[in-house]
Every structure is written in C-alpha cells, then in structure tokens.
Amino acid sequence: MSDIAIKVENLSKLYRLGEVGTGTMSQDLNRWWASVRGKEDPFATIGETNDRTKKGSSNYVWSLKDVNFEVKQGEVLGIIGRNGAGKSTLLKILSKITAPTTGSIKVNGRIASLLEVGTGFHPELTGRENIFLNGAILGMSKTEIRSKFDEIVDFSGVERYIDTPVKRYSSGMYVRLAFAVSAFLEPEILIVDEVLAVGDAEFQKKCLGRMKDVSRNDGRTILFVSHSMAAVKNICTTGLLMQNGQVSFGGTSDEVVDYYIANFLNFNSDTKIQITDAHRTNRNLSRFIEYKSIEFVNPVDNNLYSIDDDIVIAVRFTSKVDKESFRLAFSICKMDESAVGTFFSEEALSIKKGQEKEFSITIKNHQLAKGQYYFDLSVGIGNELTGTTDYDVISKTLFFEIAYKDRLKTQMMTLWHSEWGSMNFQEVELKAV
C-alpha cells in the first residue's frame, strides 16, 4: 500500500427511495442487530441497478455496486460518465460525507474535497475565517495556514471581499475561494467534482493549470470528475468510466475518453430539439430565463454541411420575471466535448415576464474542420454565464457534421486544422425573429 493513495474494494451504496431508514422501527432494529453480529444487512439484499432512464419497480436502488479500483500516489484519475452514473456518490463516500453500504476504502493521506459550492464553508464567517477553518479541518497549524494565506487570496481573486461573510459571495466567488483553499493547503489527496463549471472560463483554465502543477511538481493525488472530455484528457493520467453505479471501463485517460465517445455520445440528426431537463446542466436551479427550443433554420439532409455552407439556427426562450439586461451565448463543441469556439451576444437583451422570444443566429465562414459537432447554449450576464441560479445552461443539442465536397480542399483544410484549427466567429449575426 506504500505507493497506493486510495484502494477501493467491492464498494456499494444502497438507497431507499422516498424514505429515511427502512420505514419501521422494527426493521431498523433488525438492520442494527445484523450489523452488530457482522451479518449481511437483511434489507440490502434487494435493489435495482441505478438506471435513471427506466422506471423501476423496487424502492431500493444501488447507486454504486461492487466498485473496485486503485489510485497510485501522484496519479490524476479522471472519472467520467452520464448524469446519475454514481460519480458524485463515489466522491462523497471517499470524502467520508456518507458511509458505504458494503465494501471497504483504504486511504493513505489527508483528503481535501471540493464537491459543490460552499462545501465546508460556514456562511456566517468571513472568507479569512473560512480559510483558517478549512485549514484546521485538514489538520494544519495556524503557522502553516498563514504561510499560504497570501497565495490563497491572490489565486482566488477575492481579496477585496476577504473580510466579508461568505454568505454574501456570488457562487463564482464562493468556488474561487474554496478551490484556492483546497489547492494551496497541501492535502495529499484532492477530490474535485464538476463544481469548477460554476466559474468563468478564465478561472477554469487557471484551476486546471493548478491541478496539473500540484500533481506533476508536488506529487499529489487528484480525483477529478468532469463532463469536459478535453479537460480530462489534458490533466488526467488515468480514467474510469461509470455506468449505472458500476465501473464500465478503465485505462489511460485517452483510452477512457475515446471509449466513452465511441459508445455513449450517439450522433443524431434531429433538426429541432425541444429543451427538457435532460439537456440541462443546472436542472435543480431556479432558471428565471429558460430555453424552450433550438432548431436549424436551413436544415440539410442528415445535418451534413460543407465548409461553404452558412449554419443558421433559431433559439426560443421565455422568462418567469422581467429582465432588463442579459446575454445569450452558444458554443460549438466537438464530440470529445471540447469547445472550438464560443459566441456572446454583443448587446444586452431584455424580456418581460411570460414573454417568449426567438432569435436566429447565422454563422458564416465558420472554417470548421471535417467531423461531428453539437451546440451548447447559455444565458446570463457577461461571461459569468453559469455563476448564478437565475439562468439556463444547455448541453449537447443539435448535432451536425461538416464534410468537404472537394477532395483537394478536404486534404488542405484537414492539414490546416491539424496545425492551426480554430473557430472563426468574426461573422456571426444575431437577429430577433
């Protein structure tokens, strides 16, 4: 175990839907008596696989089932999979927030976890006080915390508000400070969930760079859950693919991402998508402004466009409140979930409560390389499009493909994109319909 940071053996977690405990005191006593005698939980012998796409017949669900893996010291493990695959449950068990139903975990070193905005922070305390509180929880002395304090504050970018209670922070400020504390107080193991998506693009890049540095230079172990395949490939050395509470595939980060793309990101040729919660990354938030649909205005057969074709889409959204200032944004992403370009509406938009608005977006001279793509959508204020509960964030809508009609052009453009490939958003028109 000397070079093993985390060892997980036969880990399972059973949940009962809709109730706390087993439902009756006698059943709770039977469960307790079985555990005292070292026997199997009599109410954990039934249960269904955690497949959120199907209606179940049992009140028991295995959020995790017989999970086994090892993480070596200094390794960066990327954990990927669809929503509901068991990724966050696994991290909560590793962080000792909840206990496993069966199985064992052996950990060599201190763990710092960043699982959701505000985890480990006391809202009534200031940013300064929460830094010392988190350091104490990690077992660090005041002297150690003071030696890192200036670096933490500088990295977080919230120096002006460091003596303000964190309950007054925006979610973006919250996660900035929380990540800085976790990254600079030097735990042996750092666990990071998708919470970094709350920050803006500049801060996400900064965080990914920091995680890469502490792994390579300081030899610390990192477990990183993300829906960004590009980020997983960039910073992770190994990967796990979770499916329905089980480990579906393991290997290097490149192998796992490629397997996921080939087997789970299915290309479809729909020309119009009615937005549902299945498309949303912030499905539990208030979303005062919501997308309703997205469609191609100039659809082609099987959504197969050439380099010379303009791409025109129409987006429709509505609002639950009067809003005088907000912006639309969209990204075009490759199938590995990396964005090749992002567009923000230049002028602030307005909408009345209950009103439905539609805009067409025309993309000219896009210069996309041959391959398959899809759209991500956001609506918010400025560049902090995911930093508030008020707005909508949509992922993986309207798949399309770029193909070249001329063989010589295909060869030339493929070569150009292999060396310089980028998205040209100089000619994007946003127009009210």
TrEMBL record:
Transmembrane segments: none annotated. Residues 47-269 form the ABC transporter domain. This is ABC transporter ATP-binding protein. PROSITE patterns: ABC_TRANSPORTER_2. InterPro entries: AAA+_ATPase, ABC_transporter-like_ATP-bd, ABC_transpr_TagH-like, Bact_Polysacc_Export_ATP-bd, Wzt_C. It comes from the Bacteria. Coiled coil: none annotated. GO terms for molecular function: ATP binding. Belongs to the ABC transporter superfamily. Keywords: ATP-binding, Nucleotide-binding, Transport. PANTHER family: TEICHOIC ACIDS EXPORT ATP-BINDING PROTEIN TAGH.
